[in-house]
Structure of LacI family DNA-binding transcriptional regulator:
Amino acid sequence: MDRRIPVADRTGQRIVAETARRSENRYGNRPTMKDVAARAGVGLKTVSRVVNGEPGVTPDTERRVQEAIDALGFRRNDSARVLRKGSTASIGLVLEDLADPFYGPLSRSVEEVARAHGALLINGSSAEDPEREQELVLALCARRVDGLVVIPAGDDHRYLEPEIKAGVATVFVDRPAGKIDADVVLSDSFGGAREGVAHLIAHGHRRIGFIGDMPRIHTAAERLRGYRAAMEDAGIPVEDAWMSLGVTDPRRVRKAAEDMLSGPAPVTAVFAGNNRVTVTVVRVIAERGRPVALVGFDDIELADLLQPGVTVVAQDAAALGRTAAERLFRQLDGSLVTPERIELPTRLITRGSGELPPAD
Amino acid sequence: MDRRIPVADRTGQRIVAETARRSENRYGNRPTMKDVAARAGVGLKTVSRVVNGEPGVTPDTERRVQEAIDALGFRRNDSARVLRKGSTASIGLVLEDLADPFYGPLSRSVEEVARAHGALLINGSSAEDPEREQELVLALCARRVDGLVVIPAGDDHRYLEPEIKAGVATVFVDRPAGKIDADVVLSDSFGGAREGVAHLIAHGHRRIGFIGDMPRIHTAAERLRGYRAAMEDAGIPVEDAWMSLGVTDPRRVRKAAEDMLSGPAPVTAVFAGNNRVTVTVVRVIAERGRPVALVGFDDIELADLLQPGVTVVAQDAAALGRTAAERLFRQLDGSLVTPERIELPTRLITRGSGELPPAD
DNA sequence: ATGAAAGCGCTAACAA
DNA sequence: TTGTTAGCGCTTTCAT
């Protein structure tokens, strides 16, 4: 008895489970091609042909299948398709923060290219955290995205080696990959910053401050390097107090700006390392009486309508995304072999703030 | 002979194909659990246990399996997993345009909620095209996303009925669903616009213009309704020339603004229906000598630093996304049954432009 | 033109 | 603790 009851129980449970699976099925309760085939009175493969628009089906059969599809509300399960075919027709984009106005257009342009190739875009924000970047990238790889566009937060991407070897197309954007050889699409941060700072120097400034992002971020380091180069070109020795790198949190930037603009020999001009920094520096300058020259890296909306307009070194976020995505699909075509480093030019847009003369 | 050669050929080809599949395999050349099992000298299920952190594996076995995983660069194929388990742990977001500063924060907040639930976010831009919206939504459904957050472009979502019936959680944001009963999270467009326009009226304006998005867009219609209500509340008859609805393309908006601000009885104030419109109207006003009062729907960056600051009716894009996503996951929990309509309040932020007196 | 059978890589259910 | 078997829903291959 003791043994027989459990056995009966188990059998009973199995039947219940079986019934549940049939009627309330995984995915809620979705019809499969098999269901459509049964309803239309045709074979499974015929349904597959109709669904995928393959030839070799008489109009009459096609109509019957289509009716069954509509009646059942059938929708092909792409998971199964992917498993069989091996391609997901989707690419992943890992960036820092979708809410940052710099990444919106970038993401959109990647999406447009993906769409042109019939692929969907899956994206994730790393929040500038290397661990989260890796976690995200690997999750995307587990989903077998065909390719990956990565704006790296970390500086070691060796964890991607098996993936790349396995055929996952990969392009890094905005910052280079760390410790692996991969395609990179960048803006000319060094050249852009150098030009922006030289512009300030040309307008008579000598005490020029630089406020940028954390030095471990490649673009921040490059822009600082550009600043230093421009100063050196002009034979101006740089003082430590003029440079401040760190998080772009408004409080940190505000303090940095206020420090530079105070004291016995304040800077007369500031070069802001990115859009977040520029916005805060504009605020700080607006609050103070004395005019301070400003050039910012990245364009910002309404910059032309401020008094004075904000002079910027603009980079083309959409072009960055488009270039990267196109390269990604060329990798997938097989038409690309050697990793390359592509650098897009920046553009100085003068609007007033960068042309102010030194206040002293 | 004639028959044997082809047969031999076919067999030969089959062997070649077989070899190719094994070595250069789909997904490039990825090891499977079977490969890992063979290498570690254990059964398939043991590998599965290790990969998924299931109990019942001795530390020693686990170590051997882990070594095989690392050596082979194995990464679980989630497509297969999804096929078996029925849940993709991913949700879809369909919005208008990721490049629009309103949608960046919204998307980011949806992503954060998804992340907290262990889900990835797949997103797509409809470009305000109903067909593209449907195409995108159905593609996401074919991928069996667990849920869908949709900012609708179209006004008929009956195509979603089979999906919802099949268990796809669905929440509409920013605009209601058309012709189906579904969860909706909105900002109070009507109330916000009414308050904004009433604010202008309170500052002495009577000839007030309204420039908004295409009337088929729910928010645009609601804001226009709010405008009309405020005018009616004040007993001001509205003239047709004061209202202009259409695409938010800068050229169209510019022309609309210039028309309203010209002629014998120009408007003395403008209510701008969304952030895109506001930006263009600010430009038009700045170019003209005469001051014009302005209140815009949606906050915009740097609005506080313009001269005068731009008074806005702000909506909280991040809260919109968060609320929607949380509701989505509550649907998936099964803790939600009846579709609801949630309306988030807006907030009037006075900065100067909305407090200007009429110029005449 | 149509269908039957095999199997993609994984997990659930069961057995040992 | 470990392994075996049977699918998940689709596409591929091959017969008919």
Q: What stands out?
A: Chain B touches chain A through 64 residues (CB under 8 Å). Residues 14, 42-46, 49, 56-58, 61, 80, 82-86 of chain B lie near DNA strand D (CB under 10 Å from a C1'). Confidence is low (pLDDT under 50) at residues 1-27 of chain B. Residues 4-24 of chain B form the longest helix (21 residues).
